[in-house]
Amino acid sequence: MNQQVLEWKRYMLYRFNCKKALRLPAHITLIPPFNMPSILEVPLGRSLEDFTRHQTAFSIYLKNFSAFAPRVIYVHVEPGVSLLQLKADLEDLLLENDLDLPKKEERPFQPHITIASRDLKKGDFAAAQAYFSGRSCEAQFETGAVSLLRNAGERWEVVGEYPFGDLA
Fold it and tell me: Could you tell me the pTM of the whole model?
């Protein structure tokens, strides 16, 4: 699936000059980006290791495309019970351990994999949305880890991969 997502991102680069989505690995955001002092990265990693040790792999289902108008195109991720529980438990972990999560997300959780991000021009949005709404995407894969990403300026980099206990 990662290769397919990369191809869609490249299409957006060549057709609409969208570069931002290419700067991050294909992922489903469970916790929105937040500022955290680098000194807390190691304790966060330890907490994530302990947390994921008690998790079990589950299936992720992708179904077609959607958008956050007027700038974001994405692959829709079905918000299954396991995914919703993982997100809720992860939020609780970060809040309970005072790991600098500002607060629980108030917006409804819309799991997705970004194809085009904020550099999609408003004038190109309708054409990009039409292109992807004319396509179908149905896929399933097993997830068995949580990744920690860091904004490294021009790119987002994976700084930690924490496998679930049944896969470790």
Answer: 0.91
